TrEMBL record:
Pfam families: DUF58 (PF01882). Residues 49-259 form the DUF58 domain. It comes from the Bacteria. It comes from Gemmatimonas aurantiaca (strain DSM 14586 / JCM 11422 / NBRC 100505 / T-27). The lineage of its organism: Bacteria, Pseudomonadati, Gemmatimonadota, Gemmatimonadia, Gemmatimonadales. InterPro entries: DUF58 (IPR002881), vWFA_dom_sf (IPR036465). Transmembrane segments: none annotated. This is DUF58 domain-containing protein.
Amino acid sequence: MPVAPASFLDPSLLAKISDLALLARTVVDGFMHGQHRSLRKGSSLDFAEHRSYQPGDDLRRIDWRVYGRTDRFYIKEYDADTNAGVLFALDSSGSMDYGSGTVTKFAYGRMLAASLAWLSQSQGDRVGLATFTQDLEEVIPPSVRHLQRMLHTLANTTPKGSSRLVHSVERVGLLSSRAGILVLITDCYERPDALGRAVDALRMNGNDVIVFHLVDVAERDLPGDADTTFEDMESGALLPLKPDDLRNKYQTLIRDHHAALQSRLAAAGADYVRLLTNEPLDRALHAYLDARLTRGRVR
């Protein structure tokens, strides 16, 4: 019996794969296979680099790999404007090391960055990586040759220490004078206005910005009713609380914070995608492709 494509996108199963290159290829192949079988309306697989075959086109320009996945003929486009430099900025601070289930926010973010980079490079983009805590830690500039180096760095990065998200985003903006795409992967523990202003600056310099906000379900819901001591993953500070007494107020504050982030980042012209770390990666890949296609139409 064939394995359902969704199985290739389950983070709890993917976390068992130690080889990031294998993981990324598995996710992208599973996603593309699922797209081929899906009847979902309003979702396009016609990437910016391809167009449908027309009679008279040079057969040497047919992308046979795409044909093998879709049973449809696509022509490779080599317009330089369709390829982009994509920098994946991954929060590697201590708070990302939290996970109430089998997958931490950092593990999910690492899988997401690897998969999106694999997908991007397969479409001709240049890919790079920046990891950050209080400042930038590792920087790999976007290049067609840097995917394996990026995957190696992701595999060997350990979340630790405190974060200065706004400062790190500002530093990312200084890495290149060439406009590109920034994919920010973080748990967004920052004031929405401050993060919005940092994204404003990136947008003013011509960059497209996609923010993936990673949330553990326990961070959203504050489960439990017994007295519990919570530990700050970055500072180590301890806070004794009874979740049952605070849950309603806490959930209201979390919802307000998420809504403010969404509103402020939308005002900055960024794409904002909130993801629970127990949900399959297909929604993230859909969101990424939708953002790329939308930006491609308006640039």
